[in-house]
Amino acid sequence: MLIAQLSDLHVRPQGVLYQGVVDSNAMLAAAIGHVNALDPRPDLVLLSGDLVDCGTDDEYAMLAKLLAALQVPALAIPGNHDEREAFRRAFAGQRWLPASGPIDYVAGDHGAVRIVALDVTLPGLHHGAVSEAGAAWLDEVLAAEPIRPTIVMMHQPPFETGVPYHGRTLAATGTDITIGCVNNDRFDVWHCWTSDCTGRVSIKTC
């Protein structure tokens, strides 16, 4: 199974540059073109948060317009720059989308690898956290298919990265996620590039 990942897209409204400098919309369009041209083409694309920059409906409208060109099924979670309810409106109709609450879900019908989306965002805040309910849900989901290869897709990283604001990210609960699930030896946590390993759990982040 081939999986592509696009993260931190920071889409802006039509004609607006990210931070007044970077054409993030054009960069996403180019990335989508690259994914579509891959041979073999990926089975799935993971959109792992910060899909837009300010969480506004006009940004999500632009995101939808850009994603319409993607010729591969996609799964998404919000990041700290997303606004949860605007995100929910933007992806309305997607069968993986929860009707309310955190954007937590399981997608197991895209191939051999099961995708578990864990929404660790805190509305209005830069860092993230996992609630006791979220941690219990994750434990239950992982236990349901303990030998199936599984990726847990989340936005903020569950371990120290050296980036100051990431240091606050899952300070209270990161150990529970990375060590508490170590017995599931086919479990991956994905955000982006930095790698770490806890027991037999591989973790990738940016």
Summarize the structure.
With 206 residues, this protein is α/β, with parallel strands linked by helices.
Give the fraction of residues assigned to helices. Answer: 25-40%
Q: Largest sheet, described in full? A: 6 strands, mixed
Mean pLDDT: 82
**Cα-atom radius of gyration:** 16 Å
Order of helices and strands: EHEHEHEEHEHEEE
Low-confidence stretches: 171-176, 178-187, 190-201
Tally of strands: 9
- Sheet/helix structural class: alpha/beta
User: What is the distance, rounded to the nearest whole angstrom, between the alpha carbons of the first and last residues?
Assistant: 22 Å
DSSP summary: helix tally: 5
Key structural traits:
single chain; alpha/beta; six-stranded mixed beta sheet
Tell me what you see in this structure:
By secondary structure, the chain is of the alpha/beta class. The protein is 25% helix and 18% strand. The protein is built from five helices and nine strands, in the order E-H-E-H-E-H-E-E-H-E-H-E-E-E. A six-stranded mixed beta sheet has the order 4-5-6-7-9-8, covered by helices on one side. A three-stranded parallel beta sheet has the order 1-2-3, with no helix packed on it. Helix 2 links the parallel strand 2 and strand 3. Helix 1 packs parallel to helix 2. The radius of gyration is 16 Å and the shape is globular. The chain starts with a strand and ends with a strand. About 14% of the residues have low confidence.
